[in-house]
Amino acid sequence: MDDEVLIKALVGSGMDLSSLSRFKVVSNESPHGVYIYDRVKGEWILTLVGGKAFKPPIDGYYIIYFDNAKCSACRAYDSIWFKYVGEVAKKLTNHYFIVVLCEWFSRRCNSEAASNSFKEYDIHASPTTYLLCFRDGRVVYREKYEGRLDSNELVKIVEEFSVRVEKFLRGEKVELPKKEEEVDITEVIKRLIEILSEASKSRRD
Length: 205
Hints:
Elements: H1 2-11, E1 22-23, E2 33-38, E3 43-48, E4 60-68, H2 72-88, E5 95-102, H3 112-120, E6 128-135, E7 138-146, H4 151-159, H5 161-169, H6 185-204
Parallel strand pairs: 4-5
Antiparallel strand pairs: 1-3, 2-3, 2-5, 4-6, 6-7
């Protein structure tokens, strides 16, 4: 499976993957580090603990959850994230799901690889869901979503990511999915102008 190819590219082809620690979910009590989801067995594999930041070694779409053990919003996101990944991972070929876990960002972390990953991707809010496309040896497109996402938002953000990548590479305008709690300030301003205009017209009449 592609997940094993990715893991072997990170840890070395000679590594016995059965020796790596596996978890059904990554919790606030799990060891700090970088976890890769094994969609065949439905397990998260602790792949990187020491060393440099995680960087994609093979082409694909990467969906990375930056998680802090001391983050209450992350605990609320866990129930959404892990359920979602379990349901869709087998359907999304060339998509790799990753969790980067520290205690509190890069400052308090028992994993050098996880701490360096927080720095590498400039993560200053948690949870953060980070998506990138790696192709021909480089990152060609990326998106960052700070804060907790719900299941509907994850569907739009993750499952339409490849479409947005291709639009970007064709030079077309890419519109990011809005988080449901976000307000389009442009539409608010337009509506206020319309209300004020109508009120002014009523006074003249």
